[in-house]
Amino acid sequence: MAKQYVNGYDKPRFLVEWRENGVPQSELIEISFKYKALREFYEAIGTVEVFKGGRRIIDIDHVEYEWRLIFNNIENPDTLALGRLENHSILKRRITMWPHREIEARKFVVGVLPEKRVIDTNPHLMGYDWVKNRGLEMTFISLEPISEVDILDPNTYYAGMGGSSEPTGPVKGVVQ
Predict the structure, then answer these.
(1) Distant-in-sequence contacts of 60-64, Cβ < 8 A, 24+ apart
(2) Phi, psi (degrees; rounded to nearest 5) at 95
(3) Residue 7, burial from CB neighbour count under 10 angstroms (0-12, 13-18, 19+)
(4) Is residue 160 part of a domain?
(5) Between these two residues, 171 and 116, which has the higher pLDDT value?
(6) Is the pLDDT of residue 151 over 90?
(7) Which of 19, 64, 100, 156 would you call most buried, defined as having the most Cβ atoms within 10 angstroms of its Cβ?
């Protein structure tokens, strides 16, 4: 049976790159995605010119993407990984995001949207180790203009479960 979703289904993957004392550094960050809550948004940016008589011309300049990662409950390792991503973004390091790690062809240069964060505490239940936090949300935005809407059919492209440990290839939103 053909897949009925587009763009992938698995957890996101992030590759952070920077230079420290002239030496290239990188960190590959993956989260568990146990609660499977990643929403993807896109918006065509341009103008609509309206002429006398009602005729219109649409001129699209570029497309912007946004991904909202929503955890109803989040465990310690995921919270710490997202905190590292946010700090990398604050330090203006290059972050490449694969919204769904099994589709290596879809990757974007992103930043973490500066917004208020909430990390709620579930009922403590006397501090048991299995008690999680709840309510963390984080939004990633494309940093470079993208020339067209990028919707991928996994029935014609599929990199396999999990892809490779080191994604390769051109990055969307970057002139090669």
Answers:
(1) 61/145, 62/145, 62/146, 62/147, 63/145, 63/146, 63/147, 63/148, 63/149, 63/150, 64/141, 64/142, 64/145, 64/146
(2) -115, 120
(3) middle
(4) no
(5) 116
(6) no
(7) 100
In a domain, 9, yes or no: no
- In contact, 163 and 107? CB cutoff 8 Å: no
Q: Please name the helix (run of DSSP H) or strand (run of DSSP E) that holds residue 95, with its range, or none.
A: strand 94-98
7-33, pLDDT tens digit by residue?
887 889 999 999 999 999 999 999 887
Q: Is residue 176 part of a domain?
A: no
Domain range for 65 is: 17-142
Residue 74 in tokens = 């989040």
Residues written for the chain: 176
Adjacent-strand bridge partners of 93: none
* 127 secondary structure, DSSP code: G
Give the phi and the psi of residue 78 in degrees, each rounded to 5. Answer: -70, -40
CA distance 48 to 56: 7
Q: How many domains does the chain have?
A: 1
In a domain, 162, yes or no: no
